[in-house]
């Protein structure tokens, strides 16, 4: 496993090379309903850091993303796009 030199919330982000990163399935509770989401570990790390920076539980942030997504894509895709947009905005 490699370590990036990027700091988020004072923590190093861990990542694996893209060719070996496999999605990890985790359970979330959105508005009282359990669901599972599969994301690559770097996305889980970044998603947790964003929630911590905002001072909200991961489930709450996932519910907010779920509430704003269109019915066309899945929740995992919406979370990936959210994470990407967050870090793109932070670099501008």
Kindly describe this structure.
It is a single chain. The chain is α+β, with helices and mostly antiparallel strands and 92 residues long. It has a single domain, classed as protein bp1543 (Ribbon-helix-helix fold, Orthogonal Bundle). 45% of the residues lie in helices and 30% in strands. It has three helices and four strands. It has a two-stranded antiparallel ribbon with strand order 1-2. The chain has a two-stranded antiparallel sheet with strand order 3-4. A hairpin with a 2-residue loop joins strand 3 and strand 4. Helix 1 packs across helix 3. The longest helix has 16 residues. It is globular. The N terminus is likely disordered.
Show the helix and strand layout:
Blueprint (H helix, E strand, L loop, with lengths): L1 E7 L2 E5 L7 E8 L2 E8 H14 L3 H11 L6 H16 L2
Antiparallel strand pairs: 1-2, 3-4
Helix pairs in contact: 1-3
């Amino acid at each position: 496993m490699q370590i990036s030199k990027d700091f988020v919330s004072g923590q190093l982000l861990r990542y694996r090379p893209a060719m070996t990163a496999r999605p990890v399935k985790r359970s979330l509770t959105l508005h009282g309903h359990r669901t599972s989401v599969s994301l690559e570990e770097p996305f889980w790390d970044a998603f947790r850091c964003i929630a911590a920076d905002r001072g909200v539980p991961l489930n709450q942030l996932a519910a907010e993303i779920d509430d704003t997504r269109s019915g066309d894509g899945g929740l995992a895709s919406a979370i990936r796009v959210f994470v990407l947009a967050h870090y793109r905005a932070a670099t501008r």
